[in-house]
């Protein structure tokens, strides 16, 4: 045999089952396996699978038995177990250098001559003591890989769940958009049909009157032709009658109709108008009510909890309560917001001074409030009936660009995931005009915040109204 002594059995053993090859097959990458072992490693996969040794692409179904390798295995199987393949002597010596069991001839005269050698029995006893350490290393390696596999499986579950949630959210949002667009299309179609029917009826009526008058004129034209051929006496008698009748018909000529018909047209900004309508229609509306336990003593809340105004007479201080505002004439909503998306609207009307936004749940409510995000307040307010200002991290609030008309209704949109608190002019029932937005992730739960501000001797007596599904409370 051509192989080095003691190594032939190792070379002719399957790397998967560690036994002599049984019906060996050789992959394109050059590695050989038992046909059954490779089939088990491939599992139920059909087609190309990675080689168990080097991960190269392998096609198990296309491999045929390696006959040359099978014959070598057959010849080796004839060598008695525990004997040298080359000298057929018992394997009685252990070579520490090569970590191989060899016969006496290989140890004294062959390839292992001069190596570190031990009797097989002594090597067996020594290596037996090392077995627990090897087992421990194997167990630790398995534990590490099992932990890695568990982490990957958890990541796989999270990925699948994230994709599922994403698809669900996409389907839900697009479904709402489709419903909105279908409803808008139906509404516009009905409006176009109504306008078309009214315009058509008016035009048909006008056209009928015009045709009737034309028929009278044509009849008079025929009469005039007939009179032209009459004798003198008859002509004069009939002509006077005919001309008198003709002048009366001409005098009764119906005036041109004034058809003030507003026909539906697609304007240049039609898509923008639809987008603005859709933005408002799809806002995730959150119904809010004022929380009386947080209200300043001078505030008067309606029984429904959606109307708040400052009393003309300043109320005496209430008992110390950490939930209640004692300096700011403010109130919070009952609803605690901690995740998701929310949208609500507040009717401010012509109230000259107010402030709206959110307040961190853990922020203090006693004493003078510092309106800044670092103090747990994200606010937009109006001052002196004309200046809109955002309370940012600065010595003074940031004044917003002046507007032609101050907003009578404010819309607030809060997204915890996106880190956005946006303010809109919601005065137009079909559109939202952006005013300002804080773009930062909130540190925790918040409550919608409403600063009604002082009565100011009647100059700021108007209330703040929470807008519900049926509109603001009167």
TrEMBL record:
It catalyses: S-ubiquitinyl-[E2 ubiquitin-conjugating enzyme]-L-cysteine + [acceptor protein]-L-lysine = [E2 ubiquitin-conjugating enzyme]-L-cysteine + N(6)-ubiquitinyl-[acceptor protein]-L-lysine. Residues 14-55 form the RING-type domain. Keywords: Coiled coil, Metal-binding, Transferase, Ubl conjugation pathway, Zinc, Zinc-finger. It comes from the Eukaryota. InterPro entries: B30.2/SPRY, B30.2/SPRY_sf, Butyrophylin_SPRY, ConA-like_dom_sf, PRY, SPRY_dom, TRIM/RBCC, Znf_B-box. GO terms for molecular function: ubiquitin protein ligase activity; zinc ion binding. Residues 135-169 form a coiled coil. Its EC number is 2.3.2.27. Belongs to the TRIM/RBCC family. This is RING-type E3 ubiquitin transferase.
């Amino acid at each position: 045999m051509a192989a080095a002594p003691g190594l032939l059995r190792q070379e002719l053993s399957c790397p998967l089952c560690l036994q002599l090859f049984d019906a060996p097959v050789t992959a394109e990458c050059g590695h050989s396996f038992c046909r059954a072992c490779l089939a088990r490693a491939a599992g139920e996969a059909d087609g190309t699978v990675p080689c168990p040794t080097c991960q190269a692409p392998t096609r198990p179904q296309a491999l045929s038995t390696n006959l040359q390798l099978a014959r070598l295995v057959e010849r080796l199987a004839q060598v008695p177990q525990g004997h040298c393949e080359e000298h057929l002597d018992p394997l009685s010596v252990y070579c520490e250098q090569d970590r191989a069991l060899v016969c006496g001839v290989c140890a004294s005269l062959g390839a292992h001559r001069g190596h570190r050698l031990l009797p097989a029995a002594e090597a067996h006893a020594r290596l037996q003591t090392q077995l627990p350490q090897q087992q421990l290393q194997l167990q630790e390696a398995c534990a590490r890989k099992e932990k890695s596999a568990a982490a990957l499986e958890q990541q796989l579950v999270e990925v699948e769940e994230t994709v599922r949630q994403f698809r669900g959210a996409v389907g839900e949002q697009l479904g709402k958009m489709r419903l909105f667009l279908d409803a808008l299309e139906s509404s516009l179609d009905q409006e176009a049909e109504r306008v078309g029917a009214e315009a058509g009826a008016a035009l048909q009526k006008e056209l009928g009157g015009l045709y009737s008058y034309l028929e009278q004129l044509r009849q008079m034209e025929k009469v005039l032709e007939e009179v032209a051929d009459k004798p003198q006496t008859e002509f004069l008698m009939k002509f006077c009658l005919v001309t008198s009748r003709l002048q009366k018909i001409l005098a009764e000529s119906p005036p041109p109709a004034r058809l003030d018909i507003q026909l539906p047209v697609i304007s240049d900004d039609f898509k923008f108008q639809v987008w603005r309508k859709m933005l408002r229609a799809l806002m995730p509306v959150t119904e809010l009510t004022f929380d009386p336990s947080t209200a300043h003593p001078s505030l008067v809340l309606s029984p429904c909890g959606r109307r708040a105004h400052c009393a003309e007479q300043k109320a005496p201080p209430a008992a110390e309560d950490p939930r209640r505002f004692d300096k700011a004439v403010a109130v919070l909503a009952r609803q605690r917001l901690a995740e998701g998306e929310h949208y609500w609207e507040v009717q401010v009307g012509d109230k000259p001074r107010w402030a709206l936004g959110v307040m961190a749940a853990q922020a203090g409510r006693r004493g003078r409030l510092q309106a800044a995000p670092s103090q747990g307040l994200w606010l937009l307010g109006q001052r002196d009936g004309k200046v809109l200002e955002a309370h940012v991290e600065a010595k003074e609030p940031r004044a917003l660009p002046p507007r032609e008309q101050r907003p009578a209704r404010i819309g607030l949109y809060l997204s915890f995931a996106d880190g956005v608190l946006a303010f809109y002019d919601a005065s137009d029932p079909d559109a939202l005009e952006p005013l300002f937005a804080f773009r930062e992730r909130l540190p925790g739960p918040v409550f919608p915040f409403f600063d009604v501000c002082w009565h100011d001797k009647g100059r700021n007596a108007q209330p703040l109204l929470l807008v519900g599904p049926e509109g603001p409370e009167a």
